[in-house]
Amino acid sequence: MTFQRIKGTFDILPESYTAGGTTFASSTAWQHVESVIREVLTRFGFREIRTPIIEPTELIARGVGGTTDIVQKEMFAFERGDTHYVLRPELTAPVVRAYLEHHLDQKGGTQKLFYIGPCFRAEQPQKGRFRQFHQFGTETIGTDSPAADAETIAAMMTIYRTLGITNTVLRINTLGEASERAAYREALRSFLDPVKDKLSETSRRRLETNPLRILDTKIPQEQELLIGAPTLEDFLGEESVAHYDEVKARLTSLGIDFVKDPRLVRGLDYYTRTAFELESPDLGAQSALAGGGRYDGLAEELGSGKRVPAIGFAAGMERLFLALEAADYTLPAAPNPAIFCIALGEAADRKVFRLVHDLRLAGIHVDMDHGGRSFKAQMREANRAGAAYVLILGDNELEQNIIILKNMETGEQESVAIASLGDHLRTLIPS
Ligand code: AMP
Questions:
Q1: Does the CB atom of residue 132 touch ligand 1 within 6 A?
Q2: Which of 38-42, 111-115, 150-154, 182-186 has the lowest mean pLDDT?
């Protein structure tokens, strides 16, 4: 009997591979992309936060919202004793939990945090959609300034631009304050109620629980029913309008193009005011690269006892890799060893084993074969590894305390005294 990975999950291997029509990038590629994300976000003043993968179910139910698909049907939840756990489906609620738990508000100023890590949603797996996937994102907590919204979007866009992804569409909207949205919700409900029999089952359910989500519909008949529907814009107060205008003005001042989309709602319950989504037409059905928005009411929902305005974005790593593929971005391969050591005979093997260790301690990337195989087999291994130099030690060399150094590019070889090997290599190999 053999085992296979769970449906909707994937392994990240030292080299990229293709399975089910998807190319899975190598671990080196992941490290590279993660380092670009960390570097850009650090430059924008964000600092990394790492939170546990398991959280209390109640945090997610409250934080993400009881009417969302995530909470209603996509949670990987389990219990032990009286405690209910969930594998985190996103990181905003966990980050706000950590912010409140560690009283980060008392550190003064705004907290600008970023994260990268796995998330879990029991969705139907398909291209670009997994059950274990990875998100990166930011949370700026403690300010309602529209500058923070524009900065969040600018940081997000810079990551994609740095990685050569330019074929994107940024859509933005405002969801207003909770009270404005509540009034709008009622107006939308009254508008759709007379035609509710023509709605899909999901939309009929949403008409009761969260009618704004119907605006997201992909069903053409439903889109038609929405023609002439009231828009949230008509329900916005002066402050919400001014906030939205300032976000747009700041984006424009940074040269960031966007499309205003009054239908953009996003599937999470906690958003207020600014909401945005970044899409790539190159991605097919799962076109959302990233999304985010303001969530001024979330901390209170999680027991802060006071309003803590905040804004963030969340992006999918797997979608980012799909976009990188579409943009023909060259992902780095794992570095080759500078040196590969070949030993012939048991005594030489012991000596080389020790030598390899010393060179590694001296900071050189060195490898060797194990198992006392033939010269030919070891040479093949050295070629496969792509080493720039090969060191060869046999009985003769061992007796004379020398070793053969071969330049794999030119084919030239020389004998070097083992005692001065370190010094010699330092002149050849950049550290
Ligand atoms: P959300 O938290 O739903 O706003 O998702 C933010 C981003 O995470 C999306 O734009 C996607 O790029 C990514 N994402 C969400 N769910 C999945 C999934 N099941 N598989 C892969 N990526 C996902």
A1: no
A2: 182-186
What's residue 269's pLDDT? 66
Q: Are 65 and 268 in contact (CB under 8 A)?
A: yes
| Full-model pTM | 0.93
**Cross-strand bridge partners of residue 292:** 276, 313
pLDDT in tens, 262-273: 888 876 667 889
Residues 365 and 359: their CA atoms lie apart, in Å, by: 8
| Amino acid sitting at position 295 | Y
Q: Which of 362, 131, 158 is nearest to 256 (CA)?
A: 158
217 close to ligand 1 (CB < 6 Angstrom): no
Between CA 27 and CA 12 the distance in angstroms is 6
Ligand 1 atom with minimal separation from the 135 CA: 8
- Tell which atom from ligand 1 comes closest to the C-alpha of 70: 3
244 sits in the region (left: phi over 0; alpha: psi -120 to 50; else beta) called alpha
- Atom 9, ligand 1: residue with shortest CA distance: 290
Q: Which atom of ligand 1 is nearest to the CA of 92?
A: 2
Residues contacting 218, CB < 8 A, separation 6+: none
The phi and psi torsions of 70 (rounded to 5 degrees) equal -55, -50
- Reduced to 3 states (helix: H, G, I; strand: E, B; else coil), residue 169 is strand
340 lines ligand 1 (CB under 6 A): no
